[in-house]
Amino acid sequence: MNIRIFQKISDIPATEWNLLVRNNNPFLKHEFLVALETQGCVGQQSGWLPCHIAIFENDELRAAMPLYKKYNSSGEFVFDYAWADAYTKHGLNYYPKLVSAIPYTPAIGQRFLCRPDDESKYIPLLLDACLSLAKEIGASSLHCLFPDKNTHQTLQNHGLISRYDCQFYWHNSGYQSFDDFLQKLTSRKRKNIKQERRKVRNAGITFRILDGRTATSNDWQNFTHFYEKNHIDKWNTPKFNHGFFTQVANTLAEQIVLVLADHEGRCVAGALMYRSDTHLYGRHWGALEQFDALHFETCYYQGIEYCIRENLQCFEPGVQGEHKIARGFIPTRTVSNHWISDLRFADGIKNYCKQEKTAVDNYISGLESSIPYRKNEETE
Fold first, then answer.
1. Please, are residues 190 and 183 in contact by the beta-carbon 8 Å criterion?
2. Looking at the domain assignment, is residue 319 inside a domain?
3. Do residues 170 and 312 lie in contact, with contact meaning Cβ atoms separated by under 8 Å?
4. What is the pLDDT of residues 38-94, one digit of tens each?
5. What order do you get walking across the sheet with 60-65 strand by strand?
6. What is the CB neighbour count within 10 angstroms for residue 327?
7. How far is the C-alpha of 176 from the C-alpha of 192, rounded, in Å?
8. Does residue 178 sit in the same domain as residue 131?
9. Shared domain check, 154 and 6
10. What CA–CA distance (Å, rounded) separates 115 from 112?
11. Structural domain harbouring 220
12. Is 372 in contact with 185 (CB distance < 8 Å)?
């Protein structure tokens, strides 16, 4: 058995890595992670330094883990700035830390890659390798963000702290059409969605649904401009770039879902989504002009229609947004796991996370009355 740390994922065999990825998850694919590194989205300038772990037996890749050494908390979507401040106030260094996550991508998925029958053997080995690396580099902590249920349970069993949050997901209940989905909503919510879609149609906007093969270079130039404008308008720094978008379009063509909105011969808005075998993931959006309800149509309704047409089970549209509930998305608890080296801080953070879990559970319970689906006994 040979356990190695890689600073470039391109040094790990792509075919062998992808064989360990379940459900064809696009963000865990070798091609996605390579594009992040080759196009400068991660690296020294961003504070995301790759240190991926791979386990080989007889020269065959048997287990792996996407892992980054971090010198900031940017692009994680699990906010630990208060933890870093507490370290600073006590004269201690919170950075570097180790993070197992997909950079800038708050989507649930594997973090310990191996075949299902090998989990009991390799997950402890990968975790031990992480903790050994953390001690070697003087990292304050290890953070596993948005792991799948199996990974979360395993890490919890190994004593890592669980931390919870909330996102909003749409689930496909075997709908045959968008109208079939609408029939499951209360009349008020159904009417509101129809009005929003009608406003977009009446504005003369049409849509194109493209993948990596059908989207042209001009389409990607337009989308990159929308994406960058959206970030700059919000005083944020764009994390991805044109090179990244075109690279994943070429290497993950069938998993790209690019929604472009046209108005009077011009492309005016777009949303980039990715798909696995069962899920659709909404990621980025931007627009040149403001049209009433265009964001809802481009980012949500077009995605829901795509899921119904392609028989995908779940649509994860990204973080935040109680407004998603009225459009059919259900509040769903997400989780991350954390190992803290300093036991004094570990105890305090563990208590904090317990209190936070109660707050998240209360928040989700408070949203139940807003869920727009008709109860079984309701008739119209």
1. yes
2. no
3. no
4. 999 999 999 999 999 999 999 999 999 999 999 999 999 999 999 999 999 999 999
5. 2-6, 52-57, 60-65, 113-114
6. 21
7. 21
8. no
9. yes
10. 10
11. 173-312
12. yes
Residue 143: strand, helix, or coil: strand
Cα pseudo-dihedral 314, 317, 321, 322, rounded to 10: -20
Residues 204, 257, single domain; the answer is yes
Q: Is residue 196 part of a domain?
A: yes
Structure tokens at 278: 């069962």
Residues 59 and 200 in one domain: no
Sheet holding 279-287, edge to edge: 48-50, 68-70, 97-100, 141-145, 330-340, 161-171, 314-316, 279-287, 266-275, 256-263, 205-210
**Are residues 260 and 278 both part of a single domain?**
yes
In this prediction the pTM is 0.96
**Phi and psi dihedrals of 299, rounded to 5?**
-90, -25
Q: What is the CATH number of the domain that holds 29?
A: 3.40.630.30
Q: Is 160 found in the same domain as 178?
A: no
**The total number of structural domains that make up the chain:** 2
Q: Are residues 146 and 218 in the same domain?
A: no
CA dihedral 222, 282, 358, 355 (to 10 degrees): -50
Strand locations in the chain (E): 2-6, 48-50, 52-57, 60-65, 68-70, 97-100, 113-114, 141-145, 161-171, 205-210, 256-263, 266-275, 279-287, 314-316, 330-340
Q: Is the pLDDT of residue 36 over 90?
A: yes
The β-bridge partners of 147 are 109
In 3D space, the residue among 36, 32, 30 whose CA is nearest the CA of residue 11 turns out to be 30
Q: How far apart are CA 148 and CA 122, in angstroms?
A: 16
Query: Does residue 374 lie in a domain region?
Result: no
Does residue 375 belong to any structural domain of this protein? Answer: no
